[in-house]
Structures are given as structure tokens and as C-alpha cells.
Design a protein that fits this description.
Blueprint: H1 2-8, H2 32-59, H3 62-82, H4 85-111, H5 124-152, H6 157-162, E1 168-172, E2 185-186, H7 197-207, H8 219-232, H9 242-250, H10 258-275, H11 277-287, E3 294-295, H12 297-305, H13 314-322, H14 336-352, H15 358-368, H16 382-395, E4 402-407, H17 411-432, E5 436-442, E6 448-452, H18 477-486, E7 494-497, E8 516-519, H19 520-525, H20 529-539, H21 541-550, H22 572-584, E9 586-587, E10 594-599, E11 605-607, E12 616-617, H23 622-635, E13 648-653, E14 659-665, E15 670-676, H24 691-705, E16 721-724, H25 725-731, E17 741-742, E18 750-751
Parallel strand pairs: 1-4, 2-3, 11-16
Antiparallel strand pairs: 4-10, 5-6, 5-15, 7-8, 9-12, 10-11, 13-14, 14-15, 17-18
Length: about 750
């Protein structure tokens, strides 16, 4: 009983002794292992208390030291009693409940100075808890700061802070209408004032009804979404605000990671402060994807309704807002009924939120019956758009925002080109073993007004007019005869059409046989192979290559006799440009498709034109070359291309009928046609004078039926050219494209007026 009382007196005033060695003659019991551990713990506690006592003696008042000494004495008594086996159990039990208080009691004795009785108040556990919580909070805060810093280290702050976006290149046709090609399309950026109020209300009712109330993160919306999703057992509602959606669209990766979530939250608050609500909403409406390749509401308005965004009705606005969450599934062109149903839900939300009246919603629902989304009328020239877009983006590089690029494409001629190619392949393709065709039409200046790169763009976007390299066959003979004229020969000079062998190679005429001595004009009109090779060997293959280069052929040309018959591959665009050089009387005529460029905020547009100028005068050879090409159409292999008026051109057929060509011109247009198969499978006796010549004739007849096509004119179409973009860049190393100026040797910068 005395032992228990002694043990119970180990309390708030105990301090703990110096480490004492236990008596070696004490008997060991079954709890010896626990006893050893307890002794070790007490020894450690004693050492700590010794250090505390030393500090107390040196740094605190006498009253505090006395309190500490009294605590140590009490602890010593407790340890002495623990040495006795009979008191071990009681002592360890008491120690388990009280040892935790020893340290705090001693500290409190030092802190209370003149109030040594305070340690009787049992607050040691509370102090430890407070300190632990504070330490944990500090560690957590530091950890959170480190995590946020790590998550934000690669955020594009500069790009976000600029308040401007990457250039959006908007292609226009030669008459200033939007060139809405298939595939990705983004229209001009619209200002906040351009969006009708009912469109804004529809989007907010659908996507973020508290947009003008929250600070970037809508906690109420998140809670509502969680509650709704839990009730439905699946994700049926999201809690992202428009600000968060904009961040996902423009600045962050789409991966659902904690890193992105942290970035999204921080940027959302910052963006609200930096840009403001109206700017955030404007950016969102200009960049949200709405299906069918349309990025931004202005693009979707053009794609689905062929309208400017400011012209949208309430019903159309509700439909566009409805498809934001699922643009692929609710595309009005492929799922009009689903789009109408979702638009009805948007109208209900607008009425419920007092954004429109019930009567306005009723009228909008009535309009759904006659609302038939359709592609815009000018949705053509996809191969043309693909060909010109890379060049347009490079030219637009210095600018930000919307850059309108006026192209040379004439919608009427483009539509004719697509029609005649499709009709010819549908009518004759299967019978002739032809699966693909390409057509290029340009002006004598090289402005490409129409381009067809294949049979069906939706099935194959490969551009066979520009990207395909094929053997031109006899269409290459133009360069042989041009080289001969440059050597001083005339169309009336004789050439021998007879068997010829060069290093074991013997060219043969189509259909066999030889004609003996013929004039150069006859050899060209009848496309005699043997005579052409003999002429090329007389002139020199190197001179033939030089002639081709002079007229604009940049492809690799093999220095072999077979080159005279078109054994080296070229593309249709370059070959047509070479024939344009003959028509123009100067070379090389570089095919080009950008007339002018106008950046948002710039007072004037810039002319662009060809990437290089025609510098060589070939007008002295032009009459003879045109005469030779006219003979082909009038009396030679190209009679199928005769349109009853001035027409000149040349046929071409590669070995085994793998490729067939006709390239020629009238007064206003130069047109090249190619037919064949992508896998180079031979056609069924198709030559350049057959299917290609008929396609050429059909296009030219329709193109000239409504008068002579005019050259693209940026000024007449509304542009105001300030300078020739490419000509100035060539002329001045200091040329600055953003304002079309250059730095002269003396004085301030000057406007380039080339």
C-alpha cells in the first residue's frame, strides 16, 4: 500500500533524476525485458532533464530553479522505488500516465518565475497539442507552397499576360468572300460588341450562369455539380467556369492531373484580375470548338448558318450554345434533331433565369422547324486552301490577332474545275482505268484561280496538283524545242525522224513507224519521239535542262537522253507555270495564290504576289512557241482540246500509260490537267490527247462562257495596298513587315512603295 502511495505522488512537481544504476542483486522476473526498456526510457528522460536543469540554473530566476530542483527530487524518489521489483508494476503504470507531463511541468516552472504553484494546473498536453498543430500547419503550408511553385513553373505567363493570341489566318477568295474550306476553320476574331446579347445569355445559361458573380472558381457551382452527380450515380454536370474552360482551351494541357488542376485554379484567379470578365468571355467565344472543324462562334455561324455572328437569331444562338458540351455528337449538320432538342433545353434555362421571355422562347421554338443548318455556298477549294495556308501563316508571322489573307482563287472557276473533273471521272474513269485527276488554272501572271487536287477531298486530302511528282511524257518536249529555238533553229528547219540508238537505248514513236525527214513544227505537232530525241542530242541535254530551268521547272532533272521524252518527274503546278511563261513572254512565271494581306489594326493592306519575279524576256521566241502549241491543238495530238477559238497546248503520256497530261492556254487562262492512279497502275490506253484534253476543253469552254476572267485586283475588291510585301523584303534587308517600312542610310524609316 505504501508503495502504491509513493508511486501516486509522482505528479506535476516531479522533475526526474540523473541516471542511476539499478542494484545488480535484484532478482529478475518475467517482465525483465519491459523493465529494461522502461529503465532506458527513464535514463533518456533523466539526461534531458539534466540539460534543462543546467539551463534553468543559468538563465532563469531563483524561484524557477527551486521549482525545477523540487521536480527532480520527486523524480529521483520515483526511480528509486521503481528499482524495487515489488513496486515495478505500480511504478511503470504510474509512469505511463504521468511521464509525459514531466517535461512540460519543468518548463512551466521556469516560465512562471514567481508563481511556482502553477505547475499544478494540468495543461502540458494542451501545450504539446498546440505546438504540434502549429508545427504541422507550418510544414503543410511550406509543402503546399512548394507544390504550387512546382506546378506553376511552366505556365506560359507571358503569353497569357499579353492579352493577344496566336495569329488567326482568315482566307478570302479573290472577290473578298470567306474561303471556308473543309477541315479546321477559324474565322475572324469578333469583338465583345459583335456578339448579340441573346447569344451571350444563351452561353451563360448553358455554361456558367454565375459568370459575372464568381472570381474564376465557382465553389457553389462545384458543390451543385457534386450533389447532382452523386444523385445520378454518374457525371452529368460539370463545375468548371468559363474562365477555367478558356484556360484549358488556350494555355494548358488537357490531361486530368493534379498539376493541371493547381495551374487552372491559380491562373483562373489571376486571369480574372488581369483581363476582366468581358475580355475573358470574348476570348472564350472566339476560341471554343463547336464541331465540323469550326473553332469559335464566328466560324460556327459561318459553317452552320452562313451568317456573320451579329446576324444570329435567338434560336440559332441557342443551338450554338447547346452544342458546346458535345460538339461532335450534336453537330447540327449530322444530328440536327439532337441539336434542336438541346437548344430547347437552353431556351428553358434562359426563361428560368429571366434572360428571355417565355414568348421569345416560343417564337424561337417555332423557328426550329425551318432551321436547316447548311454548309456555306463558298465551301470549296480545299486543296487550294491547303496549298496556300502554310505560306499565309509564314507571312502572318509578325502579327497578332486576325490576319485576312486575300487569295487569288475565283469561286466560279473553282466550282467549274471541281465539276468537270468529277463528271469526267464518273463518266469515263472506270472504263478507262483512271481513279484520280488534277487540274490547275492560272492567269498569265501566275495567279492561281482554281485548283483541284484529286477526285474527292473528303476521301483523300493529298494534293495531286502540287505534291505528286509524275513523269510528264511528251508535255516536257516544250523545253526541247524552246532550247532549239534559242540555238537559232526555226519551226521550218528539218529534223530526221528515224531509228536512233544511244548507249543501247532506242526511242520509238507512239504507234510505231518513222516519218523520215520532217519539219520541227511537224515533229512537235505529231509528238514524234525519235525526232525529238535527235533534236535534243543536237542541241545538248544540258541546254534542254537550262531551258526548263529558265521557264520555271525546279524539280530534279536527269542528264540523260530520255529526259527529252519526259522521264524526269515534275508536278502539275510547276509545269503549268512553265506554259504560263510562254503565254506571258517572260520567265519564269511563278504560280502564286496570295494577293494581299491585311492585319487587324493596320490601316492598309500589303500586296504579296509571287515569291519571285519574271526577269527573263522571252518575247522573241514567244510567237514561234505559240505557233507550235497551236498546231498541236489544230492538227496534232491535241485535237480533242479544240474549243473553236485561240487555243494552244501540248499532250503528254508517260510509259505504259501511267500518266496522261494536257497543258495549254487561251488568251486569259493557262490550264494544266493530269489523270492517272496513285499506285501508278497503267491506264487502259489513255493518252494526253484523250481524257485530259476533254477535261481541259470542258473547263475552258465553261470558264469562257461568261466572259473573260479578270486578274485578281485587291484594290478593286476593297483592299488598299501600301507596298509589295515580297518585293520590299527582297529589296531591303531592313524591311519591317509590321509597318512595311525600311531603314535608309540616312534619316528615319521610310515606307516601301514598290
Amino acid at each position: 500500500m505504501a508503495q502504491s502511495d509513493a508511486a501516486s505522488r509522482i505528479g506535476p512537481e516531479s522533475r526526474g533524476p540523473e541516471e542511476a544504476e539499478p542494484s545488480r542483486d535484484q532478482p529478475r522476473r518475467s517482465e525483465g525485458a519491459v523493465f529494461v526498456k522502461t529503465r532506458r526510457a527513464l535514463a533518456g528522460l533523466g539526461r534531458a532533464l539534466t540539460r534543462l536543469g543546467r539551463a534553468l540554473r543559468e538563465e532563469v530566476p531563483v524561484a524557477a530553479r527551486r521549482a525545477g530542483e523540487k521536480s527532480r527530487a520527486a523524480a529521483t524518489v520515483a526511480i528509486e522505488r521503481l528499482r524495487r521489483p515489488s513496486s515495478f508494476k505500480a511504478g511503470s503504470a504510474a509512469l505511463a500516465g504521468r511521464a509525459a507531463n514531466l517535461w512540460s511541468r519543468a518548463r512551466r516552472g521556469a516560465a512562471t518565475e514567481q508563481r511556482p504553484a502553477m505547475p499544478k494546473v494540468p495543461i502540458g498536453k494542451r501545450a504539446i497539442l498546440v505546438q504540434s498543430v502549429a508545427a504541422a500547419a507550418l510544414v503543410s503550408l511550406l509543402f503546399m507552397v512548394a507544390v504550387v511553385a512546382w506546378a506553376l513553373r511552366d505556365v506560359p505567363w507571358d503569353e497569357i499576360a499579353e492579352g493577344s493570341l496566336k495569329p488567326v489566318v482568315v482566307l478570302e477568295t479573290a472577290d473578298g468572300k470567306p474561303l471556308v474550306s473543309q477541315g479546321p476553320f477559324q474565322g475572324s476574331y469578333a469583338a465583345r460588341a459583335d456578339f448579340p446579347p441573346h447569344l451571350i445569355e444563351a452561353v451563360l445559361a448553358r455554361e456558367d450562369r454565375r459568370f459575372y458573380e464568381h472570381g474564376g472558381i465557382d465553389l457553389r457551382g462545384i458543390a451543385r455539380a457534386v450533389y447532382t452527380n452523386l444523385g445520378a450515380g454518374e457525371v452529368v454536370q460539370g463545375g468548371s467556369t468559363i474562365t477555367q474552360q478558356l484556360i484549358k482551351i488556350l494555355y494548358l494541357e488537357r490531361d486530368r492531373t493534379w498539376k493541371r488542376k493547381i495551374q487552372e485554379a491559380v491562373i483562373a484567379f489571376w486571369l480574372e484580375h488581369k483581363l476582366g470578365k468581358d475580355e475573358i468571355l470574348t476570348r472564350y467565344l472566339n476560341n471554343i470548338y463547336l464541331g465540323a472543324g469550326a473553332t469559335g462562334v464566328p466560324a460556327a455561324a459561318r459553317i452552320y448558318f452562313d451568317k456573320e455572328v451579329r446576324e444570329l437569331s435567338i434560336g440559332e444562338s441557342a443551338m450554338l450554345a447547346a452544342i458546346i458540351r458535345a460538339p461532335s455528337q450534336l453537330n447540327p449538320l449530322t444530328n440536327p434533331e439532337g441539336a434542336r432538342q438541346q437548344a430547347g433545353l437552353v431556351l428553358d434555362a434562359m426563361v428560368k433565369g429571366n434572360r428571355i421571355t417565355a414568348e421569345e422562347a416560343k417564337v424561337a421554338r417555332a423557328d426550329f422547324g425551318k432551321l436547316q443548318p447548311t454548309s456555306p455556298a463558298v465551301r470549296s477549294g480545299s486543296w487550294f486552301a491547303d496549298w496556300i495556308m502554310q505560306d499565309a501563316r509564314e507571312l502572318a508571322g509578325p502579327y497578332r490577332g486576325t490576319i485576312k489573307v486575300r487569295t487569288t482563287m475565283a469561286p466560279r472557276l473553282q466550282a467549274i474545275a471541281e465539276k468537270v473533273v468529277a463528271e469526267a471521272l464518273n463518266r469515263e474513269g472506270a472504263k478507262a482505268g483512271v481513279s484520280q485527276a488534277a487540274l490547275v488554272a492560272m492567269t498569265p501572271e501566275g495567279a492561281v484561280v482554281a485548283m483541284v487536287g484529286g477526285r474527292d477531298y473528303t476521301k483523300s486530302t493529298f494534293n495531286r496538283a502540287f505534291s505528286a511528282m509524275r513523269q510528264p511524257g511528251s508535255a516536257f518536249k516544250l523545253f526541247v524545242y524552246y532550247a532549239a529555238l534559242k540555238r537559232g533553229l526555226t519551226p521550218f528547219d528539218p529534223v530526221e525522224d528515224a531509228p536512233i540508238e544511244i548507249n543501247g537505248w532506242s526511242p520509238e514513236n507512239f504507234g510505231g513507224g518513222y516519218s523520215g525527214p520532217v519539219s520541227i513544227a511537224e515533229a512537235f505537232a505529231r509528238s514524234l519521239n525519235a525526232a525529238t530525241v535527235a533534236l535534243a542530242m543536237e542541241v545538248g541535254i544540258d541546254e534542254v535542262i537550262a531551258a526548263a530551268r529558265e521557264l520555271g521547272i525546279d524539280a530534279k532533272l536527269a542528264d540523260t537522253p530520255s529526259l527529252a521524252l519526259g522521264s524526269s518527274e515534275v508536278n502539275l503546278l510547276d509545269l503549268t507555270g512553265a506554259y504560263a511563261s510562254v503565254r506571258a513572254g517572260r520567265a519564269p512565271v511563278e504560280p502564286w495564290g496570295i494577293e494581299s494581306l491585311h492585319a487587324e489594326g493596320q490601316p492598309q493592306a500589303f500586296r504579296v504576289g509571287p515569291s519571285r519575279e519574271a526577269t527573263t524576256d522571252i518575247s522573241q521566241y514567244r510567237p514561234d512557241l505559240v505557233s507550235l502549241l497551236r498546231l498541236v491543238v489544230e492538227r496534232g495530238t491535241g485535237r480533242e482540246a479544240d474549243i473553236g477559238t485561240l487555243a494552244a497546248g501540248k499532250t503528254g503520256t508517260s510509259q505504259n500509260h501511267r500518266d496522261a497530261w494536257f497543258v495549254g492556254f487561251t488568251e486569259p487562262l493557262i490550264v494544266g490537267v493530269w489523270v492517272g492512279n496513285d499506285d501508278e497502275t497503267p491506264m487502259k490506253d489513255v493518252t494526253g490527247g484523250k481524257l485530259p484534253a476533254r477535261i481541259w476543253k470542258n473547263f475552258m469552254t465553261a470558264a469562257l462562257a461568261e466572259g473573260t476572267p479578270q486578274e485578281p485586283d485587291a484594290q478593286a475588291a476593297g483592299a488598299a495596298p501600301a507596298c509589295n510585301f515580297r518585293a520590299c523584303a527582297r529589296a531591303y534587308r531592313s524591311f519591317r513587315p509590321d509597318d512595311c517600312t525600311f531603314q535608309p542610310y540616312y534619316g528615319p524609316r521610310r515606307l516601301c512603295e514598290k
